[in-house]
Amino acid sequence: MPARLDIAAASGGPSRRNDLDWLRVIAFAVLIYFHTAILFQPSGIPNILNPEASPALGIFVTFSHQFRLALLFLVSGMGVRFALQHKSGAAYLAERSRRLLIPLLFGIAVITPPMIFFEKRYNGAFQGDFLDFYPAFFTSGVYPDGHLSWHHFWFIAYLYLFCLITWPLFRHWLGAGAIKLEGIADWLAHGGRLYWIAALLLIVELPLRPIFPGFRDLISDWASFAHWLIVFTVGFIMAHQPRLIDRCRDLRWLSFIIGVLASVLLFHLYYDEAAMGFVLATEPTIRNALLYIVFSILRMIAVWAWLMTCVGFAARHLNRPTRTLTYLNGAIYPLFCLHLTVIVALAYVILPTGLSTMAKFLLITTGTFAICLALYEGVIRRVRWIGPLFGARSAPSRARLI
């Protein structure tokens, strides 16, 4: 084997797909609606909440939360396959470090503190101005008791770790292990075998979730970590072998029906209207153990069915280039970095008003899109040294939104 692995040659070089780019843009854009909807729940993060909760938004949050993060990691795994198209070894790891670690550190130091400041001020946990708050952000302890937090930037940290963990496997698959990867893809491409991914997710879900149900801190959430790592790896395989994406397209309506049925059963059996979420009893009884097993089975079926539905319908309807897609591909990472701080800042002003719930929701979501895109267009995209701080590529596209 040569010292340097030529990934493009080893893999046959799959061409980038517009449907997957659209799926990435849509998946990240949905975050604005999701995180805004949390403001109208009885609890949640960001912990700056409207005086009145919204049952309708509670259903939206509970439903979308089952698979929204898995979808982000699925498309991220797909993106890694295309990142490896012309990079290998040190070049790939350097590119991942530059595009993930720099926004992560900048986000924690600069973007997150104003978000926590507005939240703590809103809840009466801090008095004073931002100049007083900023030093305390680093010295008062860990959120939520203290101020220090990475908030939504946890996603970038996890994604970076996934890239490091999977790199030896992906390198093997694109070199000496190419036949093994082809064998996996061949097996998954037949009939409904793609649905067996749900069983793989269930294998890690059942034993790990009761022990590690927790917060995104790399300590108490190994169930989610393992879950997303599997999905990330499957995303890589699907992007490497487009016939798997085509299979999702062929199965899209079946996946949709399965997702609907599984979700309906989850809501019927486990949804608590007062808590606005799924609730399971924690007492160690046989009945509760069986309920947990049924819940886990239904949830993993729903998660994977909805992921296949999203990939399938995107493959059927969105596999075409547009200038809007080119523009949004460049904007979506900076939008992710900025969106939650902008949401919280707008909520700080809008939530105390006497407007209706829907008016508040629309004002915050629309305002967040407008402000984030304005900052991207007016600053991040124009000032070369600022772009990398938000994950923007060094040579931004000249494409316009319209």
Walk me through this protein's architecture.
This protein is an all-alpha fold and 402 residues long. The protein has helices at 7-11, 18-38, 55-65, 68-83, 90-122, 130-139, 154-173, 178-188, 197-208, 222-240, 242-250, 252-270, 286-317, 323-350, 357-380, and strands at residues 271-272, 277-278. It has 15 helices and two strands. The protein has a two-stranded antiparallel sheet with strand order 1-2. A hairpin with a 4-residue loop joins strand 1 (271-272) and strand 2.
Shape: globular
Helix content: 55-70%
Task: Please tally the helical runs, counting DSSP H or I stretches of 4 or more residues.
Answer: 15
Detail the poorly predicted runs.
Answer: 1-11
Succession of helices and strands? HHHHHHHHHHHHEEHHH
The major beta sheet can be summarized as: 2 strands, antiparallel
Structural Rg: 22 Å
The number of strands is 2
Q: Separation of termini?
A: 48 Å
Biggest sheet, strands in spatial order? 1-2
Structural class: mainly alpha
What fraction of the residues are assigned to beta strands by DSSP?
under 5%
Mean pLDDT: 90
